[in-house]
Design goal:
The protein has 86 residues and is an alpha+beta fold. 35% of the residues lie in helices and 34% in strands.
Length: 86
């Protein structure tokens, strides 16, 4: 009886917390995935792609041929793009 009660309480707690916390699991992409996402976003001539703490840094050309520095989070979202000064 105690085991059944504990199981029911656990399920109830998980059901209660699910809407509060939502799906907090995110999937980190690979370097190859980051390369594919940058190309899909229109960047070409990718010169550098490195994994930093918490993000990828990519040096590539935009559609106008300008050299850009792109920052992509570990889930594949581009969150910062600026002209590369190098």
């Amino acid at each position: 009886m105690k085991k059944a009660t504990l199981t029911i309480l656990s399920i109830g707690l998980l059901t209660f917390l699910s809407p509060i916390y939502g799906n907090t699991v995110s999937t980190n992409i690979t370097i190859k995935d980051a390369l594919n996402k940058a190309e899909a976003a229109g960047y070409t001539d990718i010169q550098e792609l490195k994994k930093e703490k918490g993000h990828y840094e990519i040096e590539a050309k935009n559609s106008n041929g300008q050299k850009m520095e792109i920052k992509m989070d570990m889930t594949g979202n581009i969150y910062k793009v600026e002209e590369d000064d190098d």
